[in-house]
Amino acid sequence: MTAIKHALQRDIFTPNDERLLGIVNVCKAGKKKKNCFLCATVTTERPVQVKVVKVKKSDKGDFYKRQQAWELRDLTVVDAKDASKENPEFDLHFEKVYKWLASSTAEKNSFISCIWKLNQRYLRKKLDFVNVNPQLLEESVPSGESQSVAGGDEDALEEYQELSAREEQDIESMMEMCEYAVSNAEAFAEKLFKELQVLDGANIHSIMASEKQVNILMQLLDEALAEVDTIEGKLSSYEEMLQSVKDQMDQVSQSNHLIQMSNTNNGKLLDEIQFLVNYMDLSKGHIRALQEGDLTSPRGIEACISASEALLQCMNVALRPGHDQLAAVNQQQKLFCELRDTFARRLTNHLNNVFVHQGHDQSSTLSQNSAELSLPKHSPLHRDLLRYAKLMEWLKNTQREKYEGLSRTYVDYMNRLYEREIKDFFEIAKIKMAGTSKEAKGKFGLHGSSGKLTGSTSSLNKLTVQGSNSRRSQSSSLLDMGNMSASDLDVADRTKFDKIFEQVLSELEPLCLAEQDFISKFFKLHQHQTVLPPLAQVHLKDMVRLMMNKIFQSIEPELNSLIALGDKIDSFHSLYMLVKMSHHVWTAENVDPASFLSTTLGNVLVTVKRNFDKCISGQIKQMEEVKISKKSKVGILPFVTRFEEFAELAETIFRNAERRGDLDKAYVKLIRAVFMNVEKVASESQKTPRDVVMMENFHHIFSTLSRLKISCLDAERREAKHKYTDHLQCYVINSLGQPLEKLNHFFEGVEARVAQGVREEEVSYQLAFNKQELRKVIKEYPGKEVKKGLDNLYKKVDKHLCEEESLLQVVWHSMQDEFIRQYKHFEGLIGRCYPGSGITMEFTIQDILEYFSSIAQSH
């Protein structure tokens, strides 16, 4: 084993700067025996690394190779299998368990002991040695065993270390001094042994010579030990004294700790008392104000507000643990509850009396004979009550039932007050409307609710009504009736109605807004957005709207009644009301879309829109029921004129209005009905030709739409122009067939022959269309006869056309153009079908122009 150890050290570990300290011949347990060696090694360089290396003898030669290595720090368990019996098996637990079978139990034990020593010397990690005899794990083992078993103590391996360079040099020097050092090694060894004995003897003589010095040294050591004993005695006495001082200091420290603890407890007690005194003590002045403070004077109200806030602060103080068990605290809380109930009762009774008195007050009611259409202002009452707003907030936080009771009382009595005032206000408004209507009917015979605009387009008026304040400036500007085609009576009457309706809305709006603002502030139903979550804010708005609905529950019925009256007086009032109501709804929604005013006016706007739709339906119905005279010419139909007047009035009213879309839809319905009924009347007309009725009325419609420039009716304007142009052309063509009737029939026959396949130059050979027949027909229409026929045509056209549209000259000019076109057509046929015949008409184009001009000038 020693030779193997030397060979492994030389061949494997020395080149890697490692020293072999332990070795065991092993094979894997339970398998075919393949011997190998487990070696325990350490590196020669710092830091020292300890490894377990598996070395295997090569199969091809007598040399060893390194197969596998593990770090000793990775070893967790060494299992010797049995501590009492000899068993060569053992396990090493690295990342997995390796089972080995040693060649002998002694080698196994020596290797395990070596591993234990290496761990103790270099690693000192917790390594479990299981089933290992404790004797193997002692610091030292018998030297004989250690030297006889490979892998023992590290000191036993020193003899196997290689010589250093200096040692090699010394040995070489000694060998050079002896000639036979190489040839006779035994004699050289004997010589060295003798020299060593001489040196040992010299050492012994030297030691014996120094015995006297050794005795002197021993004596000095004895004296030193005696001195040490003396010093130890003094140190012991000093230690006893220090222990006594320590005990006294401990007592002082304990006393100081008790004093400090007492001081701390006294400070905490003082803080608790100070806390209770600061936060649960109510001054006598506050108590007096809560019990008997004046709730009518401003100074008394301020004192009550301060006292109530102080009381609420005392009641809401967050008590610390254990405070509720103190009798003084309980007594103070009971006092606070009594003061709260007493003051809440006094405040509730006082405000109840104020609400009841205001509800029964008759001084603010409108007089039936009042000439001014206005509602009483409640700002003084609101100003007086707002002084109690903070007290209402205190009541809301402390006595919720009394707060809600006060809210119901306020709503009930203010409902009675507003109901009287609003009823009287609307009665006056109705009287003013009805009085104006009756007066107008009595003096001028107003048509009433028919909505018909009378008068001619030449009667134009412009009324400018100034608004009463800047907020109404936009809606009041609608009263500017510039160039409205209606009678003076209609304009004045509708303007007055518009002014009354605007006055009603202008009075109601600030009244509702002021009351809503007061309710929000007085009953503390308004909060900043950052204070409450969105759901709480919606709840507050719902409460305000509910109170407003109860207080002003008469506004919506009264408005609907007023609207019904206005619609009954004149259905065109719905246009004014739609614009006014839309503007006020838009204004209210910009302030608060969910407010009472916005909701109420929105509901009323639905009624107004329904009346507006009914007005449009009535206009359409009147168109469908129109009847024309069979004895007189038709001219411009009444509903066409009414549409023009309606459009002019609507454009004036709806200028810059928010509900322009409603008017555009109504325009489309009306113009479609106008188109349909114009065609219907034209088809039924007996006195006036259909083309004339269509031409005149569509020309009037086209002129109206072009003048008013209604963008939503651009398509209808183009359609009206197209219909007017088509029927003008049809009327001209049909009328011109009469002055040259035979000539027309002749050339129609010529064109028929050409259409049947006869060549144009061969038409003259047809018996009915030869040159003689042509000359015969042409002679029947000399210039004098043509002029006479045209004069008769002019008179007939004049009878067909109405004077309002002034289309006679337009039609006459179109007939002139058509006549010349026919003339040129006839000349062309003559030139193509009768070439070289020299046949021409008996009048020229210049004659035609003179005929038409002279006839127009003579009439």
From TrEMBL:
It comes from the Eukaryota. One of its GO terms (cellular component) is perinuclear region of cytoplasm. SMART domains: Sec3-PIP2_bind. Keywords: Cell membrane, Coiled coil, Cytoplasm, Exocytosis, Membrane, Phosphoprotein, Protein transport, Transport. Residues 207-255 form a coiled coil. Residues 31-122 form the Exocyst complex component Sec3 PIP2-binding N-terminal domain. The keyword Cytoplasm applies. InterPro entries: Sec3-PIP2_bind (IPR028258), Sec3_C (IPR048628), Sec3_CC (IPR019160). One of its GO terms (biological process) is protein transport. Pfam families: Sec3-PIP2_bind, Sec3_C-term, Sec3_CC. GO terms for molecular function: phosphatidylinositol-4,5-bisphosphate binding. PANTHER family: EXOCYST COMPLEX COMPONENT 1 ISOFORM X1 (PTHR16092:SF14), SEC3/SYNTAXIN-RELATED (PTHR16092). Belongs to the SEC3 family. The exocyst complex is composed of EXOC1, EXOC2, EXOC3, EXOC4, EXOC5, EXOC6, EXOC7 and EXOC8. Interacts with EEF1A1. Interacts with SLC6A9; interaction increases the transporter capacity of SLC6A9 probably by promoting its insertion into the cell membrane. This is Exocyst complex component 1. It comes from Cyprinodon variegatus (Sheepshead minnow).
